[in-house]
Amino acid sequence: MRNLNLDHLQTLTKVVELGSFSAAARALNLTQPAISLQIRELEQRFAIKLVERMGRRAYASPAGRDLIERAVRLKREVDEAIAAMRRHREGRLGRVRVSANDIFCSYLLPRAIQAFRKRQPEAEVLVGIASTTNAINQVLDNQVDLSVITLPVADRSLAVTPLLDEPLVAILPPGERGVRRRIGAAELARHKLILDLPTAKYARLVRSWFEANGVEPKPIMETSAFESTKRLVAAGLAASILPRVATETAAARSLVIRRLEPDLLWQLAIVTRRDKPVTGAVAEMRDALLALRRR
């Protein structure tokens, strides 16, 4: 017997618990010779006596007591493993690995996780902040189960599910309430600007909007810290462009918020590996993300 047999450990435990090979046989619905064979195989496996007879009763030897203590712990682990697999099968347990950029993780992902928790309270959620390029690579390398990325993406290995077309809006200091309801690139560029770091795909989207409207933006500050950006704008330092969802916080209440002319949309999508089934908790998380469309 090269491997340790859990059934044999159960037999040893039952023999010592009941003090008899025959009683253990009845309890386990086995024959007494089968019980004796299992104990003998265990003793041969460890080359040590595990059961001692005193009169008509069977007792554990010191080695047997040690093994039984460990067998009890092993059985507990096995029972927990079986229960966990049952919850996986029933869709009540799992692990979901998600990545997205900092903007999405700050303003939208928490809403999806809250909805997911209501349906999957026992599931584990692991979140990583990553740029679109890194998030795509994490999906392809199977480091995460799904990512939320900025479109477009063209990798044929990915299944792409459109998620949101999030409007971007201009934010201006409180003293600018006279600005018309929609603001164009040229008018916005007359203000000092705070823009996102130019390496981000989201930031390139904003810069492309300016350039498509004949303006080269010259920001006085570049940062991906949107909460700081809102506070600096509120203090009158500059203007900026943010996703509309980032203006739905207390820090944005004093700001002047205007739609862009023309509109600028931040297009988001969920990506998964095309060759990896989306099931269980991962499917539940995807559904929770897709529910953001109804917010």
List keywords for this structure.
single chain, 295 residues, alpha/beta, Arc Repressor Mutant, subunit A, D-Maltodextrin-Binding Protein, domain 2, 3 domains, 10-stranded mixed β-sheet, two-stranded antiparallel ribbon, 11 helices, 12 strands
Order of helices and strands: HHHEEHEHHEHEEEHEHEHEEEH
Anisotropy-based shape: rod-shaped
Q: What share of the residues does DSSP label as strand, in percent?
A: 15-25%
Uncertain stretches of 5 or more adjacent residues = none
Q: State the end-to-end CA separation.
A: 61 Å
CATH first level of the largest domain:
Alpha Beta
Structure characterization notes:
The protein has 295 residues and is of the alpha/beta class. The chain has helices spanning 6-18, 21-28, 32-46, 62-89, 102-107, 109-119, 132-140, 185-189, 201-212, 226-234, 280-290; strands at 51-54, 57-60, 95-100, 124-129, 146-150, 158-172, 182-184, 193-195, 221-222, 239-243, 256-261, 265-273. Strands 3, 4, 5, 6, 7, 8, 9, 10, 11 and 12 form a ten-stranded mixed beta sheet that branches. A two-stranded antiparallel ribbon has the order 1-2. The protein is rod-shaped, with a radius of gyration of 31 Å.
